[in-house]
Write a structure and sequence with these properties.
heterodimer, A: alpha/beta, Nucleotidyltransferase, domain 5, DHBP synthase, 3 domains, eight-stranded mixed sheet, 18 helices, B: mainly alpha, Ferritin, 8 helices, 79% helix
């Protein structure tokens, strides 16, 4: 047996992933267990949970692989602060504290935490981890791989060729020229939290028009060879501690939006201006990603493309890559961000140990499951009444058809930021009012945020165009809702006629698949609004305690907790 | 002690909306941190009844954190500043470190301290006929009293008697004092460190002069650095021990 544990940590979204004999047997983000959103701390809980799920102990591990080289990163941090001398005087103490204080000791800390010998802990490069997480999880024997994020050790973008069990780096773009940091800086400018609000910017973009092209062409230049260059004089991520942009950007685009101010896209011209800025940012980001993808196609002549890195979670851009870059198919692993680096590191460790290519990822349901007994006991202790229906899917279908909001917590937790039917809030997609109710009362978030439709894969063609690709099972791409169907699934059709579709089959999400089949048997559309089971600012629910706490504190109508059903009564 | 400090600092804390908003955000962070510890306790305890109690308490803490954050944001908006955002506290993993009995003693002491502090603030607003803020703190104080009471009862039950309960509270008081001392040390060390690093940065000026020439920022595609060579050779391991 060869078991390899991959770890990503200490920046944002720490995670652990376990590969045993080439199969991913467990993968989980630390935030799901610690309940701290985007928890970056050393993922001890996640690592132990992975081992427990596989029935192994740390001593059974052939290797533990960390997803980046801390010393290479230290080198880049030192270089960057010296290049920006003296403007980085405030950043220097913070950066050095963070590097010397914890990051350079991470391999020793991992060995100590897991109780294993230090020589079993190794590192791979950040973008190599991303590339491995995308390519080896895919079904392709050969593919071009693009990795795009904020910054790894020194790279912000990587172009790779994957073939069998090898990955060859064909080129990189280095810090500070970074699409991830451009998007993050503008996310902060628009008043959202960095590493959290990027999805909001993507949703907001659909409400605006790309009217600021002239201004943005001063911020980023996309070159003929697919690379890009930022005008650093507008940014501060290489000099400042708090903000990624500076006063010059505000001179260019106008004053930034204050954080926490409620949005009013209907009547506030200011907010519409911010939506236009978001739309322009989105357009430039898409253009840059499409240019990178075309460069990858030119260089590799491959039929397939894999993408990873936080920027690869931009499903609108991914949809354009599918349409415009010339690749036959595109794959984005569900945890494409930093968490996914743990998976890539585990894959690379496995290849190092055996020389064999690991098996493709078949499902994102890789985390811990719910204990039926603990769920019953805790519900009873909380004084909550529950039933155990003989056909729980039929009950849920009835509730959804009755316009109820149902939380589904069954089976293993999803890997990555998307709820794919194991920790989901489900509702009818028919009425637009459901979207507003879900945004306002349940998720307590901005009114412009869209919701995704989950649809039976076999039925998707009746409702959507451009859905048939390797992105749709993991909600990492977009489909176009057929114009004649838009009114029928109004709650999940975005303002621009698109939907972040999830195609469901028995392999990818068995429970959700059964539920949608029941809908079909009832002669209803086999589609449901599917959004993550979490409150505003919270990680997705993991275990029975989190699910019950969510049920107690949010106005949903029912909770399915493994085999039990709890329903809200008027009393 | 905290109540006394609160009484003394009242005029400073509530002097301006800016100060008050920051203070309220600190409370929000504290409540959020407490929520994380209570969720962990709910997950780790062996008793379903205590799990239920911790969950209910955690939900109260989450609500308090949201209330404090919203009030802080409102005050900052009124004074023309942007919100400090959503609280995302750190956790000390207290349940694992202290064990359930001492964790309960710790929570009980924290609730008592919080209640006394909030009572001082409530009275301050009551004296100024500020009904809205008085009601705000009154609501939270009611919850704190309930938390004090149930943690006390559970602590007595787990400790096995009144003397044992008091002993646990004393031990935790000592542990908290030690933690406060260390935090003060860390606070001071951070300031010294920060000043030293700024000085070091100034001393690095000569390197800054030639780093641009030796290792300039590279634009566009770069050839793969050593670290990106094919995967098999790039795993770096520690030297054999």
């Amino acid at each position: 047996m060869t078991a390899v544990l991959g770890i990503s940590a200490l920046y944002h979204d720490a995670a652990a992933a376990l590969v045993v004999d080439g199969e991913v047997v467990a993968a989980i983000q630390q935030e799901r267990l610690s309940r701290r959103k985007n928890d970056a701390s050393l993922p001890k809980d996640a690592a132990l949970a992975c081992l427990s799920l596989a029935g192994l102990s740390a001593t059974d591990l052939a290797a533990v692989v960390f997803y980046e080289d801390p010393f290479a990163r230290l080198d880049r941090v030192l270089l960057s602060t010296l290049r920006s001398f003296p403007r980085a005087w405030r950043q220097f103490p913070h950066a050095i504290r963070s590097q010397i204080g914890s990051k350079v000791w991470v391999l020793d800390n991992l060995a100590f935490t897991l109780g294993i010998s230090r020589n079993r802990v190794s590192t791979v490069a950040h973008h190599q981890s991303h590339a491995a997480s995308a390519f080896f999880a895919s079904a392709y024997d050969e593919a071009a791989v693009l990795t795009i994020d904020g910054v790894g050790e020194s790279d912000t973008t990587g172009l790779w060729m994957g073939k069998g069990s090898s990955l060859e780096c064909l080129g990189t773009i280095e810090f500070p020229h970074s699409l991830g940091l451009l998007y993050a800086a503008l996310t902060a400018y628009l008043g959202f939290e960095v590493n959290e609000g990027e999805f909001k910017v993507m949703g907001l973009a659909a409400f605006g028009a790309p009217k600021y092209t002239q201004e943005f062409s001063k911020l980023i230049k996309i070159r003929e060879d697919g690379s890009f260059e930022l005008s650093l004089s507008y940014f501060a991520f290489h000099t400042d501690v708090d903000l990624g942009f500076n006063a010059k950007l505000e001179e260019l685009l106008g004053p930034r939006r204050p954080r926490g101010k409620p949005w009013d896209l209907q009547s506030s011209p200011e907010d519409r201006r911010y939506a236009d800025i978001a739309a322009t940012l989105q357009r430039f980001t898409e253009d840059a990603i499409v240019a990178l993808a075309k460069a990858a196609k030119r260089l590799t002549s491959s039929e397939f493309l894999c993408m990873a890195g936080g920027v690869a979670l931009n499903c609108v851009a991914n949809a354009r890559v599918v349409q415009e870059s010339g690749f036959k198919n595109v794959f984005v692993q569900p945890a494409a961000g930093d968490a996914g680096g743990a998976l890539g590191a585990a894959y690379l460790g496995y290849i190092q140990a055996t020389g064999k290519r690991p098996a493709r990822m078949r499902s994102a349901l890789l985390g811990p499951s719910i204990s039926n007994d603990k769920a019953r006991n805790t519900a009873a202790a909380l004084g909550l009444k529950y039933t155990e229906p003989s056909d729980i899917f039929d009950e849920v279908a009835k509730l959804v058809l009755d316009d109820k909001i149902v939380a589904l917590a069954r089976g293993r937790v999803e890997w990555g930021p998307r709820a794919l039917g194991s920790r989901s809030l489900l509702a009818s997609p028919k009425q637009a009012e459901m979207r507003d109710r879900m945004n306002r009362a349940v998720k307590r978030r901005e009114p412009f945020r869209p919701f995704a439709p989950a649809v039976l894969r076999s039925e998707a063609h009746k409702w959507f165009d451009h859905w048939n690709n390797d992105l749709s099972p993991y909600m990492t791409g977009l489909a176009i809702v057929k114009p004649e169907c838009r009114a029928q699934i109004a709650a999940t059709t975005h303002v621009d006629g698109t939907a972040r579709i999830q195609t469901v089959d028995e392999d990818s999400s068995p429970d959700l698949c059964k539920l949608l089949q029941v809908m079909k048997q009832r002669n209803e559309a086999p589609i449901m609004l599917n959004t993550s089971l979490n409150g505003n600012g919270e990680p997705i629910v993991c275990d029975e305690c989190d699910a019950l706490a969510f049920f107690l504190s949010h106005p949903i109508d029912a909770l399915v907790l493994e085999d039990i059903l709890l329903q809200r009564t008027s009393s | 002690m905290n109540a006394l400090l609160a009484r003394i600092s009242n005029p400073i804390v509530w002097r301006s909306r800016h100060h008050a908003a920051r203070k309220l955000f600190e409370f929000s962070l504290a409540e959020h941190g407490s929520m994380l510890d209570l969720f962990a306790a709910a997950r780790l305890t062996s008793s379903a009844d205590r799990r239920a109690a911790y969950l209910r308490h955690a939900l109260d803490e989450r609500r308090h954190a949201a209330m404090f954050a919203a009030k802080s944001a409102e005050m900052r908006r009124d004074s023309g500043r942007e919100s400090l955002g959503f609280p995302n506290a750190d956790t000390d993993r207290l349940f694992e470190r202290l064990g359930e009995q001492r964790f309960l003693a710790f929570v009980h002491r924290g609730e008592t301290r919080g209640r006394r502090q909030f009572e001082v603030y409530r009275d301050w607003f009551a004296d100024r006929a500020d009904k809205r803020n008085r009601a705000f703190f009154d609501g939270i104080i009611r919850d704190e009293i309930r938390h004090e009471s149930y943690t006390n009862a559970l602590l007595s039950e787990l400790a096995g008697g009144e003397r044992e309960r008091r002993a646990e509270l004393r031990i935790v008081a000592g542990w908290e004092a030690w933690r406060t001392w260390r935090r003060a040390g860390r606070f001071l060390a951070e300031r010294i460190y920060y000043a030293s690093m700024v000085a070091l940065y100034v001393l690095l000026a000569p390197f800054a002069l030639f780093v641009g020439g030796v290792r300039p920022v590279r634009v566009g595609w770069c050839s793969p650095p050593a670290v990106c060579q094919p995967s098999h050779s790039s795993l770096r391991t520690a030297p054999q021990e």
